[in-house]
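Ops channel
N.P.: pipeline sanity check, posting one input/output pair.
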């Protein structure tokens, strides 16, 4: 049974060129090329085994929550665009990245990567791994907080319950819940545990103080 490959690139000529290189390959079937979100959504219904993407399309896919879940993404990466730090790489693998193919790779390497990925392996070249290990993680932007949000966040980081926070700050529990929901939204999380992980993880680099005090 052939490996179904979908090619998604911002440049149509690039996408079509990759398609021609892969056509007539033994055991590989190109089910289509997409250069925009609508075409991608339509071709996704054909259930591709592997999706080849360039950096712009890759970012577009992983930022869309509805696209996540079972996708196998093979990124064609230019070394001039070295934006994957180790923590970024871990996160991307969690969102479907299964391979990184340098843009200078030849056709035989591309086909080998597709077959290896289809068999369940990761295909990430040594240079990408080495560069990602020795790069600093992507800097996180400062999250603007009101005075009350800072107080609630400090209480949350101390493990206080909503009831205890309400008593400490002399506000109602409903008001505490409202502040918590705003904090979840600002930090891009959905619950107290995820918020605690974000804050505790960043505290190693004094990020917690920057989040809370840098205004």
């Amino acid at each position: 049974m052939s490996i179904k490959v979908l090619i998604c690139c911002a440049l149509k000529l690039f996408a079509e060129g990759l398609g021609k290189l892969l056509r007539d390959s033994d055991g590989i079937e190109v089910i289509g090329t997409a250069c925009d979100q609508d075409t991608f959504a339509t071709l996704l219904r054909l259930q591709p085994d592997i999706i080849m993407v360039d950096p712009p399309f890759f970012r577009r896919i992983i930022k869309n929550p509805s696209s996540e879940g079972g996708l196998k993404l093979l990124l064609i990466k230019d070394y001039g665009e070295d934006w994957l730090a180790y923590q970024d790489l871990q996160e991307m693998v969690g969102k479907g990245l299964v391979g990184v193919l340098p843009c200078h790779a030849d056709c035989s390497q591309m086909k080998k990567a597709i077959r290896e990925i289809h068999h369940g392996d990761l295909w990430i070249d040594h240079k990408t791994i080495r560069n990602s290990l020795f790069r600093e993680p992507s800097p996180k932007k400062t999250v603007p907080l009101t005075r009350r949000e800072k107080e609630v966040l400090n209480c949350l980081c101390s493990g206080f319950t909503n009831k205890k926070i309400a008593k400490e700050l002399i506000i109602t529990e409903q008001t505490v819940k409202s502040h918590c929901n705003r904090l979840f939204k600002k930090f891009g999380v959905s619950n107290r545990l995820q918020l605690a992980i974000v804050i505790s993880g960043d505290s190693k680099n004094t990020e917690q103080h920057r989040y809370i005090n840098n205004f």
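N.P.: looks fine end to end. Residues 202-215 have pLDDT under 50 and may be disordered.
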